[in-house]
Design a protein that fits this description.
Blueprint lengths: L2 H9 L4 H8 L3 H8 L7 H11 L5 H4 L5
Helix pairs in contact: 2-3
Length: about 70
């Protein structure tokens, strides 16, 4: 589960639908990735960070919590 990304997404009021639109994928796919059922690709992570969270490092946003 990507707790940091989920929390920062909530803080900035960014929806999973917005991220899905950015990555040209389904909202359910984003939900699966946020919840640890699958993983974001490196390119997807960079895109999300650059567009929505430029003030945070990738290592922080995409740290997996068990």
């Amino acid at each position: 589960m990507l707790v940091n990304l989920i929390n920062e997404k909530k803080n900035k009021k960014i929806t999973s639908k917005q991220i899905a639109n950015l990555l040209n994928t389904r909202e359910a796919t984003i939900s699966d990735k946020l919840n640890g059922k699958s993983r974001f690709s490196f390119d997807e992570a960079i895109t999300i960070q650059k567009v929505f969270f430029p003030e945070y490092k990738l290592e922080y946003l995409f740290k997996h919590d068990e």
